[in-house]
Automatic annotation (TrEMBL):
Keyword terms of this UniProt record: Pyridoxal phosphate
Record-given protein name: Pyridoxal phosphate homeostasis protein
Organism: Streptomyces botrytidirepellens
Residues modified to N6-(pyridoxal phosphate)lysine: K40
Cited PANTHER family: PROLINE SYNTHETASE CO-TRANSCRIBED BACTERIAL HOMOLOG PROTEIN, PYRIDOXAL PHOSPHATE HOMEOSTASIS PROTEIN
Family assignment from sequence similarity: Belongs to the pyridoxal phosphate-binding protein YggS/PROSC family.
Domain of life of the native organism: Bacteria
CDD domains named in the record: PLPDE_III_YBL036c_like
Cofactor: pyridoxal 5'-phosphate
Length: 239
């Protein structure tokens, strides 16, 4: 194995141990939690190595980086997640490679994604990003819609052609009542998810937790964790 592949294999093994231990502590089965490796700022060669090591879910947050990388890796059996704040002018490009968009937080974006998905003859999975640093329907500091805006947005996604409502996503907030309290934030997300599933039973995906707080996310009940640094290393600074 190349040095880089050996390094990635060791990092993946450590993350796997963490997820397995967190599942055991929470009384959950390991297969209930899916690892998504966030590959932003790292090259397509790393994505290829990850695929060789068994990774199936990868995530990106900037279309200008993700689009060429996904094209370079188009032959791999990967599921691509878009997790960054998304401008409507990037929607057509994102829709050409992403299988799931995790950062949907406004009706205008739902409409744009629907048009792009229909145009590309694809079905796109959608997660509503929930902002836990705001109380009302305004957008959060890191994107997302306030908890009271989730229901209306879910109805919009459900009614939109080409889109499939898969569930919810959040990022542990830096401000507000849940600042520095990832477990409390993820518990709140699970409450919102339970409410969502009453009307939308199939929307059972809950994406929460990153390298620093994946244990808290697993304990709360997250179905997907998004891990970058713990697998790929500390990110190079963007120029």
């Amino acid at each position: 194995m190349t040095d880089r592949k050996t390094e990635l294999a060791a990092n993946l093994a450590q993350v796997e141990e963490r997820i397995s231990a967190a599942c055991a502590a929470a009384g959950r089965k390991r297969e209930e939690v899916t690892l998504i490796v966030v590959t932003k700022t790292y090259p397509a060669s790393d994505v290829r190595l990850l695929a060789e090591l068994g990774v199936r879910h990868v995530a990106e947050n900037r279309d200008q980086e993700a689009a060429p990388k996904a094209a370079e890796c188009a032959d791999l059996p990967l599921i691509w997640h878009f997790v960054g704040q998304l401008q409507t002018n990037k929607v057509r490009s994102v829709c050409s490679y992403a299988d799931v968009v995790q950062s949907v937080d406004r009706k205008r974006l739902v409409d744009a994604l629907s048009g792009a998905a229909v145009g590309a003859a694809r079905e796109l999975g959608v997660l509503i990003q929930v902002a836990l640093d705001v109380d009302s329907g305004e957008r959060g500091q890191r994107g997302g819609v306030g908890p009271d805006g989730v229901g209306a947005l879910a109805e919009a996604v459900e009614a939109a052609d080409g889109l499939r409502l898969d569930g919810l996503m959040t990022v542990a907030p830096l401000a507000g009542p849940y600042a520095d309290q990832p477990r409390a934030a993820f518990d709140r997300l699970m409450e919102i998810s339970s409410g969502l599933r009453v009307a939308h039973p199939a929307a059972n995906m809950v994406s929460a937790g990153m390298s620093s707080d994946l244990e808290e996310a697993v304990a709360a009940g997250a179905t997907h964790v998004r891990v970058g640094t713990a697998v790929l290393g500390v990110r190079p600074r963007l120029r």
